[in-house]
Amino acid sequence: MKNVLENHLARKLLLIEELYNKKKYLQLDEAAELLCCSKNTLSKDIMEINKNFYVIEYEKTKGLSFNKNKGVNFNYLYGYLLTESTSVQLLKQIIIEEPTITDIAYDIFISESKVRKLIGKWNEYLKGRNFSFKIIIDKNKLILAGNETDIRLFCHYMFFGLNYTDIYDQTTSDSQLYRLYKENIKKQYSSKCNIGDYELTKAYYFMITALYRIKNGHYDNVFEDYHPFKVSFSSTLYRNLETKITQVFNVEVDTKLVNQIIHHSYFKEYNQELAPIMLEVKEKYERFVQNIIDCIPNLILTEETTRKIKESLLLILLHSPQIKYFLVDHNINV
Questions:
Q1: Cβ–Cβ < 8 Å for 121, 4
Q2: Which of 10, 64, 160, 216 has the smallest number of Cβ neighbours within 10 A?
Q3: CA distance linking residue 26 with residue 18, whole number of Å
Q4: Which part of the chain is the Mga helix-turn-helix domain (predicted)?
Q5: First to last CA, the chain
């Protein structure tokens, strides 16, 4: 993260993360050492954070703390700071429209040499996390190339973070596209579950990312990574969603498209059908889980308890995504 974000944004995020998730209090000396900056720089960063939110407090005897009673959570601050990053805006524009270097330099008010420098920083960061994709320049266009599923996973966390303030203010939930998407998902799984809005919203931004990629000609052929779309294609509910997607993304909506917009890590409790290749994986995981249970001494479980443990572990093993966050791992319930 430090290599990608602007220095002041990286420091602020690290400080907020440390105070919010890990420690109740942090002394000024400790904080300055953590952020590799002077106390004056630290004080300036805190003043800039508190100018908008006033969530970081200081007590002389105890140090710095994050006041969670202010009603501002980590995700909100994370999203707010991401929107201030030129580096993140660059990646966002690459996903949305695959611009030329000249065009994106003009759009985000930086020089072409600065664009190339940011591309280098992104590729260094992506390589450092062992991702199988990178930003390339093809016919002067900037393109994310490589493992398509991983590109979508990584970037949908970015869109979720960038739009978290909209979610907080209900801008996302009030949009027509989100309402149509939500109605279709609820229809698909209504008999099986009560899907929470948080998971619905994150899955929505995966769909948005997938649609941007498809609009730019990037389909994903790893079909087992997705849940099939099962709402009746002749229904009015589906037709309305199809029309809206076509209007917003200018793409032809067909079976191939809709069957690669719901990643298998979402709604996993309600999708029991697996692709043939995943059935083989499931059998291996079942044996693995059973071996774990058998190896725990003095473990006495009822048949029902054993079944529930197996199901829970299998869901985690089968459906956990390869990539779990964008720049900061904030998947804990904050």
A1: yes
A2: 216
A3: 8
A4: 73-156
A5: 20
- The secondary structure element, H or E, covering residue 59 is strand 56-59
Question: Residue 51's CB: how many other CB atoms inside 10 A?
Answer: 8
3-state helix, strand, coil in the chain (%, to 5): 60, 5, 35
Tokens of 24: 């109740």
Q: Give the list of residues 6+ apart from residue 36 with CB closer than 8 angstroms, or none.
A: none
d(CA 297, CA 293): 9
- Please state, in angstroms and rounded to a whole number, the distance separating the CA atoms of residues 334 and 332: 6
Question: Distance between CA atoms of 29 and 32, rounded to whole angstroms?
Answer: 5
Reference 318, options 273, 285, 277, 293; nearest CA is 285
Quick check: pTM over 0.90?
Answer: no
Task: For residue 156, count CB atoms less than 10 angstroms from its CB and return exposed for 0-12, middle for 13-18, buried for 19 or more.
Answer: buried
CA distance 151 to 158: 11
- pLDDT tens-digit map of 140-184: 899 999 999 999 999 999 999 999 877 666 677 678 999 999 999
Structural contact between residues 64 and 25, judged by C-beta atoms closer than 8 angstroms:
yes
Burial class (CB in 10 A: 0-12, 13-18, 19+), 111: exposed
- Alpha carbons within 13 A on the beta-carbon side of 61: 0
Contacts of 149 by beta carbon, 8 Å cutoff, 6+ apart: 220, 222, 225, 263, 322
Rounded to whole angstroms, the Cα distance separating 6 from 316 reads: 35
- Kindly state the tokens that stand for 198: 């948080």
Q: Which of 251, 147, 267 is nearest to 204 (CA)?
A: 267
Q: Which of 20-40 are b and which e, b meaning 16 or more Cβ less than 10 Å from the residue's Cβ?
A: beeeeebeeeebbeebebeee
